[in-house]
Amino acid sequence: MNADATRLSGASGRGLSLAEDLMTGAEAIAVFMFGDASETNKRKVYHASDKLGLPTFKLGGTICARRSTIIAWIEERERAI
Question: What's this model's pTM, rounded to 2 decimal places?
Answer without folding.
Answer: 0.80
